[in-house]
Amino acid sequence: MLRNSGRGLIACIIATLLATTEASALPSVFRNTSPRATKLSAEQVGKELIPTLSTTAAVYTSGDPRWANATARWQTWNYPNVQLVIEPGSEADVPKIVKYANSYNVPFYTRATGHGSTKTLGKFTGIEISMTQLRGMTILPGEKTALLQGGVFGKEVIQFMWDRGFMTGTGSCGCVSLLGPGLGGGHGRMQGRHGLILDHFVQLNVVLADGSTTTVSEKSNPDLFWAMRGAGHNFGIVTSFEHKIFPRDGDLWYSKIYTFNSTKLEAFHTALNELAKKQIPEIINWSIYLLDPSVSTTEPVIHWAFEYIGGDANLAKPYLAPFEALKPINSVEQLLTYPQIPVAEGTHAEGSLCEKGDQRMQMNAGLKQYNVTAQRQIFELYKKNIFYDPAIQGSVIVMEGYSIQGVTAVDPASTAYALRDDDLLCAAIIRYHPNPKLDAFAIKWASDTRNIWNAGQPTRKLTTYTNYGFGDESLESQYGYEPWRLTKLRALKKKFDPKNKFSYYNGIN
Ligand SMILES: Cc1cc2nc3c(=O)[nH]c(=O)nc-3n(C[C@H](O)[C@H](O)[C@H](O)COP(=O)(O)OP(=O)(O)OC[C@H]3O[C@@H](n4cnc5c(N)ncnc54)[C@H](O)[C@@H]3O)c2cc1C
Ligand SMILES: *[C@@H]1O[C@H](CO)[C@@H](O)[C@H](O)[C@H]1NC(C)=O
Ligand SMILES: *[C@@H]1O[C@H](CO)[C@@H](O)[C@H](O)[C@H]1NC(C)=O
Ligand SMILES: *[C@@H]1O[C@H](CO)[C@@H](O)[C@H](O)[C@H]1NC(C)=O
Ligand SMILES: *[C@@H]1O[C@H](CO)[C@@H](O)[C@H](O)[C@H]1NC(C)=O
């Protein structure tokens, strides 16, 4: 759905080269910590640690061919400053790596697929623990759950399950891991039926801050299980997890993607508010304001993607009548298998949305319904700002309308995820090739957009989906306003991570 040139890939390589140069010239982590730590190098880790790990475990720095992939980021502004990558070859390697890093007082950071974008990640300097070798998937006896390793990502999980007759909770984008989103929520196409990614967790196998290992579930460490479902990035490394799976449902999905002229904006959002009243778990839909050069180079348009689980177009079409009446500029109708849906909608791993190497100033707001006045203000701001500089024209305003039944079916107090009352997830994503001259402009644009959404719902407290967070939001807006929530999280933090080793992802303090 999002069309873009290949420039992101080039940007990715350039950004990685820059990071590489800085990293080799500046091993500051080792200088800033204990005197012993100054001597730590890939050679030393290779001698002291690697022989104690499984045979495929590896350590490398910027000269290594694996470095570019291991450190590439979706957000190249305030990203983690990685000085050394260690790849565990087995789950049992992870506690050893953590203990080793702790013995030198060197910070560590777990990377699954590198899409984390909050600016709080920029505070990190140290060892990256890359989960890239830990991508095993096993359907467990009984076929109600699967054991997945900590580095698995959407595309391969969707295909693996589909091929074996199952579906499960993942994000919508093929490139993104399950645990990056899942530890803080995890929105996806299955949520109308089965809830967020974290609602699929049955047990997490966790390495704690001190390098000890533990199992976390309703029965074992239930308080930690509560915390890791919503604020999980703050508490440990998940080496593997037992995840609910469901029988594959319908061989085909109905997909229709529309492009509307912005003159239809008010009628469009009014129709969406009406559609929300007919919410059923089978419908997923989302819209984007964008500059689509295949339609017009001077006038931004609205894209709307509608998906219906089950290939029966006759069941889907009644929901579409009000949108057909708006006379779209164009539309594309398809019957697809579930694994093909991300490709049709531009959320596939190879698509522009997933591309690494650019900067993205991203800010979000959770809504109950659309305020048409606010949406018009956001569109007019977009229309003005998108022409500020050609470099910024890949920026988009995204409004996600996932079905919510599976999310609201769960008692909100039963997990640390505090946003079950939000129906719409909206974000401004201001995107450009790294260029400090554009930063202030981009941040203001994202912030103005967020402000308009929030001003449009004066009776609601503003909420922030932590996984789309910019890093300037209040903890309450992410982890909940009820005072007991942060009190409980802080108490658990003292117990399980007293030295605040897991502090880089919208950390609780
Ligand atoms: C293109 C794109 C699509 C997205 N689609 C969705 C979506 O459909 N639904 C949704 O809810 N969100 C989505 N997001 C937001 C997403 O939830 C966050 O960006 C998330 O941080 C990405 O996780 P990652 O593993 O890719 O990133 P990383 O930067 O590798 O990790 C993010 C955070 O998770 C931690 N982490 C990763 N693996 C582990 C582990 N095994 N154990 C403990 N901690 C771990 C990291 O330490 C870090 O703090 C999307 C983001 C992008 C950029
Ligand atoms: C880097 O990742 C790409 C895409 O997943 C893959 O095709 C390539 O082989 C990887 N390169 C290395 C050196 O691992
Ligand atoms: C949108 O509609 C207006 C008014 O009819 C028209 O002038 C304009 O060309 C249309 N834009 C696109 C992109 O079709
Ligand atoms: C479609 O998306 C809108 C918002 O974009 C949301 O309010 C609505 O609930 C969704 N409709 C259905 C039937 O899922
Ligand atoms: C919609 O947004 C406008 C602009 O912020 C605001 O004045 C108005 O009160 C909002 N309407 C509702 C129903 O909240």
UniProtKB/TrEMBL annotation:
Superkingdom to which the source organism belongs: Eukaryota
GO molecular function terms here? FAD binding; oxidoreductase activity
What is the annotated signal peptide range for this record?
A: 1-25
Q: For this UniProt record, give its keywords in alphabetical order, as a comma-separated list.
A: FAD, Flavoprotein, Oxidoreductase, Signal
Annotated ranges, domain FAD-binding PCMH-type = 78-248
Which InterPro entries does the UniProt record give?
FAD-bd_PCMH, FAD-bd_PCMH-like_sf, FAD-bd_PCMH_sub1, FAD-bd_PCMH_sub2, FAD-linked_Oxidoreductase, Oxid_FAD_bind_N
Family matches, as PROSITE patterns: FAD_PCMH
Keyword Flavoprotein assigned: yes
Provide an example Pfam family for this protein.
FAD_binding_4
Q: Does the keyword RNA-binding apply?
A: no
Task: Tell me its family.
Answer: Belongs to the oxygen-dependent FAD-linked oxidoreductase family.
What name goes with this protein? FAD-binding domain-containing protein
**Which organism's genome codes for this protein?**
Karstenula rhodostoma CBS 690.94
